[in-house]
């Protein structure tokens, strides 16, 4: 494999992600050497490939392998842990304001919102903010509906939701034409005719990135759903609803308002 060199005597156990020292406890050592390849210094075996040690996963309490970069909360949400270079690193953690720790018997505990509020866009177009203010705005460009502030508390995910308005003949009024959501490093476009585009590629529905993000269709309506309970729906014509959990109170800006319980 790449990043390996030939040797006339392959060790009984080569260093690997599962056995970084190559000790091979309990394995019988062969009496004769065999030719073969060993990983270069700084690399270890992972599924027959030589990879840098930094790309190895971590062992969990049950001996399973966790992928690099995986994050989770400890029991009681008191620590936030991440798998880095074969080691689990944990830091003290508290669920952000507007949320609480929700135990999960089959998985890791999570921070669940105390409640959610909705912002809606409909008609030509009318807006109703998270704080209940209703108004009409006839711009024919792409506008920010929701955008998180620059500095966020630990555990609150940055996000942007935009609405693209367009005049649709034979009407002379402006209508919502498309919803764009930027979250977890993805750009998701909910388009007219209920089409889905992810990072400039058209995708089939239902679409699931991972346990954090998915897009489904119900009753002729697209739904983007995240693990922290952001829900963005679009009917493919002129109506969108954004449901945002309470941990975002006061942490957003845009045409949907700043979510501060004040209509002004």
Automatic annotation (TrEMBL):
SUPFAM superfamilies: FnI-like domain, Serine protease inhibitors
Gene3D superfamilies: Laminin
One example of a Gene Ontology biological process annotation: positive regulation of BMP signaling pathway
One Gene Ontology term, aspect cellular component: extracellular region
Ranges of residues in domain VWFD: 117-264
Subcellular location: Secreted
Coiled coil regions in record: none
SMART domains xref list: VWD
Superkingdom, natural source: Eukaryota
Chief location bin: secreted
Keywords, sorted A to Z: Disulfide bond, Secreted, Signal
The protein's name in its UniProt record: Zonadhesin
Organism: Equus asinus (Donkey)
Gene name of this polypeptide: ZAN
């Amino acid at each position: 494999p790449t990043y390996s060199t030939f040797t006339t005597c392959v060790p009984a156990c080569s260093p690997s992600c599962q056995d970084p020292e190559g000790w091979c406890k309990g394995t019988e050592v062969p009496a004769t050497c065999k030719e073969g390849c060993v990983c270069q210094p700084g690399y270890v075996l992972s599924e027959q490939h030589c990879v840098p040690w930094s790309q190895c996963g971590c062992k969990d309490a049950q001996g399973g392998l966790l992928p690099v970069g995986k994050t989770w909360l400890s029991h009681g949400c008191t620590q936030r842990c991440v798998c880095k270079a074969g080691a689990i690193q944990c830091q003290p953690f508290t669920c952000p304001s507007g949320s609480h720790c929700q135990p999960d018997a089959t998985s890791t505990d999570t921070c669940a919102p105390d409640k959610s509020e909705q912002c809606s866009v409909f008609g030509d177009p009318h807006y109703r903010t998270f704080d209940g203010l209703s108004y009409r705005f006839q711009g024919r460009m792409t506008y920010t509906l929701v955008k998180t502030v620059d500095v966020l508390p630990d555990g609150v995910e940055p996000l942007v939701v935009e609405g693209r308005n367009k005049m649709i003949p034979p009407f002379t009024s402006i209508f919502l034409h498309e919803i764009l959501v930027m979250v977890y490093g993805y750009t998701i476009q909910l388009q007219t005719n209920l089409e889905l585009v992810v990072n400039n590629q058209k995708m089939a529905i239902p679409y699931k990135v991972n346990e954090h993000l998915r897009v489904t269709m119900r009753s002729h309506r697209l739904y983007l759903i995240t693990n922290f309970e952001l829900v963005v729906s679009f009917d493919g014509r002129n109506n969108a609803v954004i449901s945002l959990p309470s941990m975002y109170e006061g942490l957003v800006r845009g045409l949907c308002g700043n979510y501060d319980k004040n209509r002004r």
